[in-house]
Design brief:
about 450 residues, 23 helices, CBS-domain, Tetracycline Repressor, domain 2, about 65% helix, 3 domains, 6 strands, 3-stranded mixed beta sheet, MgtE N-terminal fold, mainly alpha, homodimer
Chain lengths: ~450, ~450
């Protein structure tokens, strides 16, 4: 269907294409627009009915949105701003260059402009910056019939009418009533009798990570946002929360791979900013890895007389690093999902200790079989390698298990305690154990 | 509030506690129940009104659910099974031991039992195993007024009434109409005129990863599930999708840290199964790390004459591994979110190449300053270290960038191409470059 529409547009058969397009979902129309040349986007955009055009606009890429705003008339901009939900408008403006923002704000009514400016001031990633104001407000004295009539009158412009909010004259939130409850109730019943007063709400300053946690915990589709005086100021719907969850996970993945987090898409990020986000942690870790260098240097004598010892360093370091990052990953993830709390540190330590005994024994055993019986390495070297391997796995798993919890206690992000940092720590422990055992067994010193 | 309720229960003031509890959200009640002794759970559970009790039950831990099923009477079980949504019942039964499942199924009507058994047969993580059957069905000949009356009659037992489904006599899905649309329409209008026929739907066999992608792409709250004959068989709501997104992310984190994925909570998983999920990959990676060992062994001579070379191996390996895992993480995440497609392999390679030139130059430069000017290492050694470091970073970033895409082309999970595997590959490249350059510069061979 998309292909046919594109072909029709390229052949200049715009009204045929329009018919085809109107059968499609707005998300797919937006995707189709991304494949067109810019002047064709403009033609097709203008051929769409107003409400559909605005919907499509909200799903387009920033680049196409910017192109359209620059290309269309002031009247058309006014229509878009009037029809878009406030949270989408704010999201788009945050990404646009100053001249485009100016063109949009000039064509916005003073009331809406004030609102937009107010929203732009909320801290990034706070409930205030995510919420929208298009909700249905009711009064508790209304009957169900009055409420439904009110909804019919104002509902078209609301983000959701499935949950309605009951406020007093000071805009203080007093209750919630679902459209479902309204439909299922007798039409003479007063809202006061059916509204739910035990309300889960967010404050304008609640951080997005906590917002996502509350949505998940209570299985909600929409949560009201109130200010410090419990006045209703907006609502957050679950579709925004799904984006937040993805964004928070992306940040965790990036931090765990020793990068500064960024929510820009990979292919849209330029080379300099990709390099910038990566180089600082690489530098820090590179310089801390010199500690392991000086450990090796201080054991130069034993290494000189038993050069074969160098051959096992990579295996020892990699296995230690991998063991530690397994534990760290599970604990970081458990903390992020709220499955592990700070007071569980003892349980984690005890669990990791037992797991490390099992894993360490298996790895050291297999390794001994391989290097002593198959590769016929010297017995002392084989013992040194396997005992150090065992100790490294035990230390790696315990360090990997508790460092993220300690980070959280220190109010740092547990995700920074992931493999790269733990590898650096475990490397040092592994090498000291390795050379100390070698020195003891092979008696130089 | 929770603390006060617990205190009242411990003092045996159950009816006071009940009043307190009924003010609370069901999720919080379930959380409170987890803190009680088992016989008090039973007492309080029986004191709650039926509908609330069932809601609370669905939010309790598997352990408490099992205890309750074992403790309560057959009649009580029947009530729970009748009131629970089918998808929740199936989820719970999947986690219970056989004797408990039997006790539940005995107390289930034959119709429902057949349905449950049918649901248990859908493949794990498919739309069929996630969906529920409690949706509202309408006919296209109905007027809005008839539809609303129908909803009022059957709506109480439905998971959602916000979206209703229009089927023909063969249960083929013909359209969707939202409660919002019904409310906003005139009551004499026929459903046929207002229903939406351009429907996004899922097949019973669609995998959960794709389900989540479709929900995100189209910003939907509920999607119908159809069989191969486009007959409506169930619906999936977004609250289940939020759980899927968390689960898929947890699996990716685990795979990227070289573990077999598991969706059990860390603290609830026993030591043996934790060890089992970790040891296989560690073993594979340990054995592949012996390749690097044999590379070192083959350069034993140069190492013997310039022992100081060993001191830089850990730094070189760690920096290479970290550089590669940064690139791999960004690409794996980009693939998972659909921001990077397979045909982007050339763009990724070119981007990583340029990033690696920038990052490699900075790291090698800083390193040269440090080891030549501050540590006063021999010039040839310093050059060897820094040139290999540069080459390692370039190779690591390009390998890290393309391996996940190649994995996807081969229909493997890109997440397994994460740091541990890439580290093992990059280690080998780094060591060969290192010793080859050393040999060339310091002229033994």
């Amino acid at each position: 269907m998309i292909d046919r529409a594109i072909q029709l547009i390229e052949e200049g058969k715009y009204s045929h294409a329009r018919t085809e397009i109107l059968e499609m979902n707005v998300v797919d129309i937006a995707e189709l627009f991304e494949e067109l040349e810019t002047e064709k986007i403009l033609i097709m955009f203008r051929l769409l009915p107003k409400e559909i055009a605005v919907d499509v606009f909200s799903y387009m890429s920033i680049e196409s949105q910017q192109f359209l705003i620059e290309a269309i008339t002031d009247t058309e901009i006014r229509t878009i701003v009037e029809e878009l939900f406030l949270d989408d408008t704010v999201d788009i403006l945050e990404e646009m260059p100053a001249n485009v923002v100016k063109k949009v704000l000039i064509n916005t009514s003073k009331d809406k402009r004030d609102l937009i400016n107010h929203f732009l001031k909320y801290p990034d990633n706070s409930a205030g910056s995510i919420m929208t104001i298009e909700y249905v407000d009711l009064k508790k004295e209304m009957t169900v019939k009055q409420a439904l009539n009110h909804i019919r009158k104002i509902g078209v412009d609301k983000e959701t009418i499935n949950t309605c909010y009951v406020m007093n004259q000071n805009r203080k939130l007093e209750g919630i009533v679902s459209l479902r409850k309204l439909i299922m109730s007798d039409e003479d019943v007063v809202i006061d009798e059916i509204m739910q007063t035990n309300i889960i709400s967010l404050n304008t300053h609640t951080d997005q990570e906590e917002i996502a946690a509350i949505f998940k915990k209570y299985d909600l589709l929409v949560i009201p946002v109130v200010d410090n005086e419990v006045r209703l100021v907006g609502i957050i719907t679950i579709d925004d929360v799904v984006d937040i969850i993805d964004q928070e996970n992306t940040e965790d993945f990036q931090k765990m791979a020793a990068m500064q987090p960024s929510d820009e898409e990979y292919l849209k990020t330029n080379v300099f900013s990709l390099a910038k986000h990566r180089v600082i942690w690489l530098m820090v870790l590179m310089i801390s890895a010199t500690i392991t260098g000086s450990i090796i240097k201080s054991y130069e004598e034993i290494l000189q007389s038993v050069v074969i010892l160098a051959a096992f360093i990579p295996m020892l370091m990699d296995t230690g690093g991998n063991s530690g990052s397994q534990s760290a990953t599970l604990v970081i993830r458990g903390l992020a999902l709220g499955e592990i709390e700070m007071q569980d540190i003892g349980r984690v330590l005890w669990k990791e200790f037992r797991v490390s005994l099992l894993v360490g024994t298996s790895l050291a055993g297999v390794n001994f079989l391989r290097i002593y019986f198959i590769e016929r390495t010297d017995l002392n070297v084989a013992i040194t390698v396997c005992v150090s391997l065992f100790l490294t796995v035990v230390v790696a798993k315990m360090v990997g298990g508790i460092l993220p919890i300690i980070a959280k206690k220190l109010r740092l992000d547990p995700a920074i305690m992931a493999s790269p940092l733990i590898t650096t720590i475990v490397d040092a422990v592994a090498l000291i154990a390795y050379f100390a055992i070698a020195t003891a067994l092979m008696g130089i010193a």
